[in-house]
Specification:
alpha/beta; 14 strands; six-stranded mixed sheet; disordered N terminus; globular; 268 residues
Length: 268
Amino acid sequence: MSHDAGTTGERELRVVLAQLAATPRDLRANAATIREVLAAHPDAELAVFPELFLCGYTGQRVAELAVTHDDPILAELGAACRAAGTAIAFGFAERAEDAAPAGDGDAAVHNALAIIDAEGRLAAVYRKRLLFGAEAEAFAAGDADVLGTAAGATIGALICFDIEFPEPARRLALAGAELLVSVAANMAPFLPDHELASRARALDNRLPHVYVNAVGEAEGFRFVGGSRAVRADGSVALELGGDEEIAEAVLMVGAPVDPAVDYLRFLR
């Protein structure tokens, strides 16, 4: 398979990496933070927030925090995207009405990533497939890879532990992704794991990769930041530290790949 330029052609994409600590269990406060970031970065095309940012990272009573696709808070964020002309990607707890009921009678809850485009449409929802540790006790695993179109690019969605395996990103690349977007709540002592994996998944597939991690502490975990924008050759365009930080990066999307290092061509 030839891994050539995407449908949008080669161009620059301006992305905001919003490495922030969510307010625990306060969807309204975290939605307000998303709106504030959009207002403060009017030239950005895409803003990315950490895993489960809308509710804060937790495995406790997640059904209380879960929302469906038609929840007013997602509609309000869509309106903010439309007003700003900026797409967003963020983690949230999704109440999956299409899923089999959980043991407590509620619909399953997923650790999910939402992509809302600049027109305010919910472009994609990805349900984390590879749950880490005790997450498997709180969330139902997803069962599908997801691409979403936003900011003029075909985005492959990943969440945290997903990036530590080559297969999920590779499947997205083979399906036509032009940009990998990963949201995370990576904690100590695993900073080196994601430093390597974020670059490796870009290089494996010759795709730019936006990786945004959480900071702060919650439920005994210390989140280590280290968010980064990675070019398609695996080099780092922008890297953040371990504290709250918001920064803009520019990545090239849709660039042709040198056939000599287009690893996807060599897959059997």
